[in-house]
């Protein structure tokens, strides 16, 4: 993706976070808001985290003529990473299941579905 886009970290995030959707669907047989938020949060985290690593390769990437979010953000890498990490936190802080209700999903997930959302 680095050869055709300045956003290879987004593709990496989409691929890595896919397990949130697949795991939820496999365990519960359907999708809900929680796995979608988890997917979005994990994807945003991957973009932010991998952008930090991409900073190490900015010079080599420029010489090779390939893209990265670190190159795309230029002198605003800290701001870019901060925005993605803030968005990740926002996505993961959304409540999807009231903790007092049990409609069978809690049993499938363990003690609390919010464990999957980082709570």
Describe, in plain words, how this protein is organized in 3D.
This protein is mainly α and 119 residues long. The chain contains 6 helices and no strands. The two termini are 33 Å apart.
The secondary structure category is mainly alpha
Tell me the major beta sheet. Answer: none
The percent of residues in helical segments reads 55-70%
Order of helices and strands: HHHHHH
**Gyration radius, to the nearest Å?**
17 Å
Distance separating the two termini:
33 Å
Low-pLDDT residue spans? 96-103, 106-119
Strand percentage: under 5%
Index terms:
119 residues, mainly alpha, 64% helix, 0% strand
Topology:
Layout (H helix, E strand, L loop, with lengths): L7 H21 L4 H22 L3 H7 L4 H5 L3 H16 L12 H5 L10
Task: Write a concise synopsis of the structure shown.
The chain has 119 residues and is mostly helical. The chain has six helices and no strands. The two termini are 33 Å apart.
């Amino acid at each position: 993706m680095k050869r055709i886009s300045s956003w290879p970290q987004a593709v990496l995030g989409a691929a890595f976070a896919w397990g949130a959707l697949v795991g939820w669907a496999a365990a519960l047989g359907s999708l809900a808001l929680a796995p979608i938020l988890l997917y979005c949060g994990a994807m945003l985290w991957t973009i932010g985290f991998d952008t930090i690593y991409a900073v190490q390769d900015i010079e080599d990437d420029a010489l090779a003529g390939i893209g990265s979010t670190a190159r795309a953000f230029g002198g605003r890498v800290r701001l870019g990473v901060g925005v993605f990490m803030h968005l990740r936190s926002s996505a993961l802080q959304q409540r999807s299941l009231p903790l007092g209700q049990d409609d069978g999903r809690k049993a499938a997930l363990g003690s609390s579905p919010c464990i999957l959302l980082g709570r």
